[in-house]
C-alpha cells in the first residue's frame, strides 16, 4: 500500500442470517451473534437491509445492533417515509439508499437517481442532518455518478451485480465501466464503495481499482460460513483484501 492510498475495508451483510431465523419465526440464529462473530473475523462494518416487507431484518435488529456492536452499522434502506422515520430514530453511522421491489429475490440493480428525485434529495438531506454518512447504490453510469454528487451524497456504492454475472469479454466491459465510474466519483469528491454478487474469486480485479475503498459482501460470506463459521469466513475474505492493502 502506498503512502497516498487508503486501506480497503470490508462490510459484511448479515441479512441471510435473519432469513434463516424468519423461516421459522424463531429466535435463532441470532443476528447479533452473527454480527459479533463477523467483527471477530475482521469486519470493518456490518450491513443490514431493513426491507419494507420485513422479510429478514426486523426493526428490533437494527436498534440492537446499533447498541451492541462495536463497528459501524450500515443500514440499507429504501426512501419510503416509514423506513426513513425508523432510520432517523436509529441514527446508524451509515445508510445506503437502495431500490426495492417486493417481488425481487435480491436487489436487482442500482437506483435511478432521476426518479422521485425530490423524495430522494429530501431523504439524503434528512439523514445527513443527523450526521449519517449517506451512500447511493447506483449502476456504474456516468450520469448517475454525477447526479449522486449533485444530491450531496457522502459516497456511492457501485452495483457490481452485472460484473459478477458476466462472462468472457463482457466481464471485461463491466469491469471497465466500474473503473470509470469509480474514477469519476472520486474526482467529484465522493467516497467509492462496491457490492453485490462479490465472492472470494471475482473480487480480485476490483481490488486493483484504487478508488474503491469499501466492499460490502454478504451472500458468499454467509454461504461459506455454513461450513467454517462466520468468523473464519469473514477472516478469509478480509485476508484477501488486506493482501492488496499491503
Overview of the molecule:
The structure is a single chain. With 246 residues, this protein is of the alpha/beta class. The protein has a single domain (9-245), classed as TIM Barrel. It is built from 11 helices and 8 strands. It has helices spanning 15-23, 31-41, 59-68, 81-90, 117-129, 142-150, 161-165, 169-187, 203-207, 219-228, 230-245; strands at 9-13, 45-49, 73-77, 94-97, 133-138, 155-159, 191-195, 212-217. It has an 8-stranded parallel barrel, surrounded by 8 helices. Helix 3 links the parallel strand 2 (45-49) and strand 3. Helix 6 runs parallel beside helix 8 (169-187) and helix 10 packs across helix 11. The chain is globular, with a radius of gyration of 17 Å. The protein starts with 8 loop residues before the first strand and ends with a helix. The mean pLDDT is 94.
**Which outline best applies?**
globular
* Proportion of helical residues: 40-55%
Tell me the name of the CATH homologous superfamily.
Aldolase class I
User: CATH top level?
Assistant: Alpha Beta
Overall pLDDT metric: 94
Low-confidence stretches: none
What characteristics describe this protein?
TIM Barrel; 246 residues; 11 helices; alpha/beta; globular; single chain; 48% helix; 8-stranded parallel barrel
Question: What is this structure, in a nutshell?
Answer:
By secondary structure, this protein is of the alpha/beta class.
